[in-house]
């Protein structure tokens, strides 16, 4: 199972360059696509999900030309868009059964088993007969996940799936995803670094339409090993001064005081402590570097 | 106050920024513009050619029409102003701030009101602009008067905006539900339409309460202007005062509805809660349910965190799955529609509509009929057709947009199915919904038939009409709507375009675009007839419909190609997508185009190649050319037809006939005749030959007018023969205007297929508007009675006086063919039926007809009191229509009794009635032969004793024509028409009165009086007095009948009948005894023509029987146009010591004379008018006293003593005199 994206470019009619010559190879398992809002993640996902045409480039999925043989892709695809609505007055079980038919699950018994299993898995069993339109944001999101997993998809594209989920729900979802993600390709786009770290053997960082970094989280972490330093500041003025001098990766408030993380090959000063590299550092640095360029 | 201004100006700014405000304004501008800019568009244009398009009546009427459709706009503007906060959830922010109720509600309301008024000024501005349109009929545009625009706007529109706006505002503020706001306007609109349909069907002549209670104003306006003549319509504004024919009604109406507006504002002011808590508590149930569900969910512990493996499923893709996908999608879409309230609202409305209209299926005009299936379908389906189209349009928009509107498109578009599957399921969902609606319609129809006691269910006819005719049409429209919605990419703009196409079709038709091949969705109109079923309409409807559906289906295929899938909305992207899909769709698209091309070509070949395609305007142009070129020959001496012998073969299946004819022509002028002119209006005549050498001088296109020169002139008094061939071959089908004369069952054509000698003035265009279009100048009317040339010409057949008649007519083996005359012989030959009819040497009018049909026959022999000269009564009818045969025969017997006893003996020994299809609806009197349309008289049903027995009436009327029209004929001068029509009408009234009594006639006459008064408001030239009537049917039927009836009431029926007898015996059969007939038997001397009688002689005869003090009645009734204004002002009663009651009655009586310009001038009074005192309540009065008293002054007080306690009293209580306000003649008596 491999998805190969080659030199994909897309410019919207309003002039926004959503994708700039993006190339990427995704094998089996979970693949995390990390990037800030507006980085081009959704454009890339939609293009792979056959909902959008690139201006240039090619996408191959196990010998299927994704841009030409759209129906073949759709048969193996499970897609959860970033935002989606539901029909009014339609219950979860009815809707899933309906979608199962559309996904080609023709056997009534299989359909029933699958739909019920998914409802159980997404913890929607008790509310399966309630109208989707009365669902809360998290419930709706879980329904979205359920529909994406119908028909054992070989390619799963989930766009910002954990947005709006509470911590328990998020965990549950990630568990589910990882249990499936072993033998199929799952592309998970998110701006939450922990999602990737916890789940994805491989990842990429995308910003302003460009692929900035690709590798496994550990590889990414290794590049910065020993170069991240932490320091607690006393005033805003001090922060300003340091920002002018050093590469500040991030700043957190800890009990009312700024704790900054700084990228530097060597220890920048006595007040700085060496800290273990976090994926977030990689992310912030990659994005920040790119925007400077 | 500051805060009020803040809200006010915020709302104004919001509206100023919103595009809908401008769309509404522009829509009204366009509406107004076309109302005055084209007489084919507005509600007034068609009405009457003399009503000014920018006169006060027209401007007010246009405001009213705008007000009706404006209900929806008013609801949109007022309702959304308050709903916005709840829809966008800004109310939480708003109501936590210290704002006053007055500022919030008042500001929103006031701004909505101002915006609404401004939007509606679009109508006025548009109408004003329209008056400058260069193409409009400027004869009907007067110089613009500002007040004519402003007064109706203020009186009608602004008041309506105030009242409806306040009501909608209140409902929106108190319900705070989107669906209520969207639907309330539509609901008021529909309920109002239903209301006026119901009211209209009651045929009430009540003009007071109905006007006051009308919220939109159509009934109100009709009550006020019902009897306005053209002059008044071009002068009067809606009266705020207590003048006019409905005094005070307008004022009361405005007060009532303005008060309701105020009450609405008061209610919303009282009840609207200004706190978030109160507002939320009452907020949408859905939101509350969602909150509850979320709370329950949060409280629940999460059961397992470990994800189990999902089961494995098999995916199968193939045609079976495609079909399963199609079914699943269709099922889900239908389910979604049927789970929504609007769908059930539509069904409920449809049922209410159908029940309501179905109840009146048996009401045609002023009579009750059996609700046969075509009438029931017309009632339940006809008015709902718009409904079906609206549903198709709305749901097409919903279905095309649903995934995107619900943001489900991301999931939906990535599903593994073809765009075609998805698209077909949308189309099928609309089909399912429409089928449900149509089935409901049909079932309600049958239910209503059952309730009306009609049990002859024609399920097949329902199925054909609903599923084979209406359904494909509606689906064609749905395809169009889906196409538009797909390519337009804005739902509301899409709706606008679809509605515009729908509305434009009939408008374009009125503009003269009559060709079905280029009017979207058009096909020739059809009429169902019980005698023929859908008959000859099947082919044109089928091919026309196939053509358009194929075109729409092609658009459907195109819309599949352009269906948006995925997130790309740009035109270029969608075009690329369409190109990519094209190869798969090309075969289907091509097939559609081929079908369209094939059906279209076949349609074109039939309508334009096999048949001469002519629009209404083309026909007018031909008639105008005829008048221009040949009117000059009208008085050219021509020989007169004195005998007709014809052999006619009818081929009903082919809708054709052929035959030969032979006319005997005599020169009854005093100069030799050198040329014979023939008019052949129907292109049926050929092989014209005379019995002497002749040659063709000229022939107009379409053989319309041919001039033959006789090489040897026809000397004065001499005769000759003309022989010719007549035939009509129906080829293929036409685009509408199919000739109704020829039908497979019920052929009926008349003398018009034979050559007409000389010029035929019947072909002239009468409508002044059309004459202006053709630059013809005013119509030359019938000459005055003193004219010596025209007075010698027969009114009906100017180039013939009387003829003898013999014919042989054949038809197919299963039909009976009929023509005037006595059956001499009947035989069968080569599978065809032959009939020989002859009038022998007896004279008839040169007016005859041929009929053929599959008839059931009822015969009986009538004998009068003496028992001599029996008359054979025969009715030839469709076996399904036996309902009224007995009634027809009874009426004929009663008529023969009355007319023979009072006028003269019946000149024939047979009287036959035969049914013909309802493509034409009239009855016509030929000599001893009366064709009677299946649409009138054959399905009459008397349910209540007050029902008008139209069958009885029409039969008596047509029988009356055997005297008035077949014995007595006037000259071709003014007034003569009334001597046939008024006298036949009077005769029928008398026969009816003898059967049903005076009270019944009182009711019937009230309707006829109303028809006369309304008829004169539509007069396009000038209203003549009865004795000088030209072509005004409302004068010769309704007014004439009333005048004669009242005269009989005043001087006695016997006196009137004696006068008619004397007149008839003196003048009947004019010019019958100075001619040579075919048999060469000379009747009388071979002398020249003499005068035919005219109305002066009739008036003289009536005068002779009228006492001098009542002769003013005849002068007023026949020689003038006179209107009374009688009114009871007050009535009181006191009991006398002897136990009797004394009534004191104050009355007003006025009398005016109307000149030809419509100007009214007072006349001195010296009149006898009935005064009555009654007991019992209104409408069920029993007379205690009824006497004619003499009135000489406007105000009088009358004292009357009666035996019982009186309840009602009045002047002319039975409306025997012509009075425009007929319901103020009586008043309640108050006792002291």
Low-confidence stretches of chain A: none
Terminal residue distance of chain B = 57 Å
Helix share of residues of chain A? Answer: 25-40%
Helix content of chain B: 40-55%
Count of strand segments of chain A? 14
CATH architecture of the largest domain in chain A: 3-Layer(aba) Sandwich
Q: What class, by secondary structure content of chain B?
A: alpha+beta
How many helices of chain B in DSSP terms? Answer: 33
* Overall average residue pLDDT of chain A: 87
Beta-strand percentage range of chain A: 25-35%
Question: How would you describe this structure to a colleague?
Answer:
The complex is a heterodimer of chains A (293) and B (1232). With 293 residues, chain A is an alpha/beta fold. Chain A folds into 2 domains: 3-90 and 133-216, P-loop containing nucleotide triphosphate hydrolases (Rossmann fold), CATH 3.40.50.300; 226-276. Helix content of chain A is 36%, strand content 28%. Chain A has 10 helices and 14 strands. In chain A, the strands form 3 sheets. In chain A, strands 6-7-8-3-9-10 form a 6-stranded mixed beta sheet, sandwiched between helices. A 4-stranded antiparallel beta sheet of chain A has the order 2-1-4-5, covered by helices on one side. In chain A, strand 12 and strand 13 form a beta hairpin. In chain A, helix 3 crosses helix 4 and helix 4 runs antiparallel to helix 5 (137-149). The relative contact order of chain A is 0.15. The mean pLDDT of chain A is 87. Chain B is an alpha+beta fold. Among the domains of chain B are: 2-284, no CATH class; 320-610, no CATH class; 1121-1232, Aminopeptidase N, middle-beta domain (Immunoglobulin-like, Sandwich). Chain B contains 33 helices and 31 strands. In chain B, the strands form 8 sheets. Chain B has a 7-stranded mixed beta sheet with strand order 6-9-4-3-12-15-14, with no helix packed on it. In chain B, strands 23, 24, 25, 28 and 31 form a 5-stranded mixed beta sheet that branches. Chain B has a 4-stranded antiparallel beta sheet with strand order 7-8-5-11, with no helix packed on it. In chain B, helix 20 (459-488) runs parallel beside helix 22 (538-562). The longest helix of chain B has 40 residues, at 571-610. Chain B is globular. The mean pLDDT of chain B is 89.
